[in-house]
Batch of 2 targets.
Target 1
Amino acid sequence: MTGGNTIGADVRETAPRSDGFLHIDTPRLVKRLKDLGVNTYVYGIWDSPTDWDDLRLEFLPAADRAHIDVWVYLVPPTECSDSADRLRAGRCSRPFKLDFIAWAREISALSSRYQNLSAWAIDDFSIPGNAALFTPEYVQTFTQLAKQTNPDLGFYLTTYFSAASNPAFLDKYAPYLDGIIYPFLDDPNWNNHRASTADDRIRDLLALTKPRALGLVFMAYANRYLAAMLPPTAGYVDEALSLAEPMVRSGDLDGIIAYGTPLDGDGQHDLRRGGMWGDGRLSLHLPAWSPTHAGEAAVATQVVSVDPDAPRYELSFWETDGQDGGPAPYHAKQVLLDGQVIWERDATDQLPGVWVNGHDWQGRIDVTDILRGKTSAELTVRLLEKNGVSYFPVDVAFDHFQSLGFEIANPDFEQSGGWKVSGVANLNAVIHLYHEDESSRIFETVRRHFRPE
């Protein structure tokens, strides 16, 4: 599945045509899809005013010859810039924009010519700002129009967990739908790094969709989600697909979408290397739209080995965050030894994105009084909520710990071990490892699942 704001999820020509636009490169895109082993491509109409013509005149017939089904994917009002100027139009599903009666008519007619056009869908259907257009009466009108032309043409809505798990929402629209596309985000925690809850969330939704005769499609992020603090990795994609695949085989799921799978070359799918030193860092973060309560924390800890004969003990580290002022105290960055806070700073107290060695003027911290006479101690790094928030996203990074008189395992976060990480609710602690070829890793992971040898 392509998607605007993903990176490399479609394949476009490298030079504009006579109309000035970069069109879909149909031969290369079809080849990449065949390489990937997919049987269906969710074709987004959003990025360019030429997407619809590229679909109907070039891509759809080529996909038909390649035995690839196609779903047409449209955007709602919240993602539509409705300018009449074609050259300065911004993004919207063109040419029919928000006229879904016209879309139903044209898509169903096209599906009568090409049987591989098997479904259509609308993005972010349930988020605020779209309900005024998508009344049940309006949805009934355009879905019935499409079914009159092609009764076999499926119609799906993409809706996040909060609405997909709401019986009232499902009852409101179920008579007009074939199914729900569910974007998995470790709900309700809004992240792309913890996939272990996928099985439970899918079962939660199946308990609601099955009795209403609605299909369910699981959407795993194989590319960035803008509200999440970390991009997905190949390991994350592997775990998410592994949990969902048995439910496809059993018939519980209609299918799996690997959203934004990087198709166009080997470039990094997200530019956030993140670390100051090497390719790894510790990330303590809170995603957008994530409430917290006072006392909750994201934590990384380990037991360090102390040399009891050392004449003195020191600790140094580097840290940064993306906050630029704002109310305080809310997010407190802290380092502790044996439960004693040895360093603390509010997340709004420094320039965003600037790595500093503790406080700007501080440097190494003398911890001799705490460690003298000990052979071990507990080192803790945490992001502590001094007060609860309703919306205050933050991503705090730590890197390059250095010690004198004691040993720290994995001090530069260049591997996954050494630290025990934990979080509460939406607060997350993750050792994030950057790979320059992450997009290729993700592509190969999806191919291994979709096209097993």
Target 2
Amino acid sequence: MHAVSIVIPVWNEEKNIPMLVQRIDNSLREHHILYEIIFVDDHSVDKTPEIIKKFSKKYPISFYIKQGNKGKSYSLAEGFEKAQYQTIAMLDADLQYPPEALPEFLKKIQEGANVVVANRKQYKVSTFRKFISSAFKFLFGKLLFGLHHDVQAGFKMFTKEVYETVHFNPSTGWAFDLEFLHRAKQAGYSIKNCDITFEKRQNGESKISFVKASWEIGMNALQ
């Protein structure tokens, strides 16, 4: 049976956790895929921890409190180290990325891809955010590094071998995706895209200014 470890960084996502877990479970069980969900909580001040612990009684969930620096990149790094399966997925908790795409990602891994990246083919967010994402993808991904992928996508799947080979310590709280893909490409790994629809956040608030995050990632890319 195929298996995947799903690492999800969280901070104050109490309203999204129930639907997120149920959608992951429905999608993967339907395709007979064994899984574990690894939540890394960046010290939430709402009921996120309590809700996750409640769901862990029914679903294959592990819950960890962040030990290192604040920021998504550091949460991901801690979560990857906890993964027990040979295939790892990273997914945001806000439900803007569809968990239903996990089986398709895994299929591409089984067909020989080492890394699969969500390609936000359709956007249901503001025109401004779509423009910034497209511009970043072109300027920093394609022109600077020759990457024909959505270098800001928070939904990826890769083999544990890839992570262990290109392993690095994050330099900032948000600069992970571009550097990870660049290093994977340099190491000769196969990177494939998977088209998805990027939804509008339904519950809660964004944890950081999108422009600020893009600036931080862009500066890290130049460095």
